[in-house]
Amino acid sequence: MIMLRAACLAFLVVAQPMDSARAADRGENAALKYWQAFATMPKLSDAEQNRLADYPAKPLDAHSRETVTQAEYALQMMRRGAALRNCDWGVSYEDGVFLLLPQGSAARLLTSLARLRAGLRFEAGQNAEAVEDLVAAITLGRHVSQGGGFIMLLVGYHIEYRVSET
Description:
This protein is mainly α. The protein is 74% helix and 0% strand. It contains eight helices and no strands.
């Protein structure tokens, strides 16, 4: 009986660090931060999304400021994800050509919001914060292109190109 108790105690002591190690690994995955950002982005109409895509050709206005305010948490999560090195989207290729990659369109929208906030920050003289937003957007572009095949690579290139316009 004493041996059984000792074995159970040893198992609990050994198993506990493994669980915390797994939790630490999950916290180091940038994709988890990005998914939180995607889930909390403001719901924008097609017209609003097209307007975001047209920035910086269109001037910044009160609606732009309101949109950025609504996206504050999503942009914060994007910056947290960009600070992490590893990014595993968990793409499973078993669906073949029918595989959906929703992170692509979500990343394009989130980086458009980051570009908009950077523009507002440049106007306000907050250049360092604006550059940090742009670097985080480029990092998201790099992260989104990992593990998603050729299409996601093109999405990443598109994001980098659009951010460089800002």
